[in-house]
Amino acid sequence: MRLGGIEFPEGGLGGWTLCNYPANELPQELATAIVTINMNLLGASYTPIRVLGTQVVNGTNYLLLAKIVRTDLEHTTDIVLMVINIPAGDITGEQATLVDVINQAELPAEVQDVFDDAIGALHGVNYTPLLYVGSQVVKGLNYYIICEAQVVYPGAIPTAVIVCVNTFEGKNTVVSIEPISAFDVNCSKEANAPLGEWP
Questions:
Q1: DSSP letters along 121-161, please?
Q2: Distance (Å, whole) CA 138 – CA 176
Q3: Cα(181)–Cα(82) distance, integer angstroms
Q4: Which residues contact 76 (CB under 8 A, 6 or more apart)?
Q5: I need a surface site. Which of 100, 126, 147, 176 has the fewest CB within 10 A?
Q6: Could you give the CA distance from residue 68 to residue 116 in angstroms, rounded to a whole number?
């Protein structure tokens, strides 16, 4: 499985199985679930960007990267993670529920320290971590984090990126920042690779 040129090996992340596919390839029951959830919400609507994972929990949980648009005067937007559950036996998605919305991830302490130090050297864009993807031993250690990126000016529209930060000999550096649109999509919905920490 590849994301933005990064190869992810076998592993696991909290029981999630990675399935990197774009919003225009949603299974019908998930597409219906999102419509149903949006119809029952007041003050905001969600537009999926990518499906990042699935998890078998009383049916199927889907982990989606999504854009939330609020119905305030400015129509403010954010990039979030959302978890949708489609109960077992619901083949239409009409009984789906919104389980969780994640505006900011709680990173492991070591990763948070490295991320904060490396990102602190950048100016003009705010990066909010949404999902810690994994690590890789290279010259030091690379950490990969999916983030919301928002340019610091009024009305800026946020985007989703994957940030790679490296820690080596006490120095923390941003190695790359790639837009989610650059993700390679080479795993199918039927044969998904697990997502986890690199060996």
A1: T--SEEEEEEEEEEEEEESEEEEEEEEEEEESSTTPPPEEE
A2: 14
A3: 18
A4: 69, 70
A5: 100
A6: 25
CA distance 84 to 132: 19
What's the token pair of residue 160? 């989703």
- The model's pTM: 0.78
The token duo for 8 is 């992810």
What tens-digit pLDDT sequence spans the chain (199 residues)? 455 445 554 444 557 777 778 888 899 999 999 999 999 888 889 999 989 888 898 899 999 999 999 887 777 889 999 999 999 999 999 999 999 999 998 899 999 999 999 999 899 999 999 988 888 888 899 999 999 999 988 888 899 999 999 999 999 999 999 988 644 333 333 333 333 333 2
Domain spans of the chain?
2-102, 109-182
Instruction: Measure Cα distances from 97 to 19, 49, 103 in Å.
Output: 20, 18, 18
Name the architecture of domain 2-102: Roll (3.10)
Give 156's contacts (C-beta < 8 A, 6+ positions apart).
150
Is residue 66 within 8 Å of residue 80, measured between CB atoms? yes
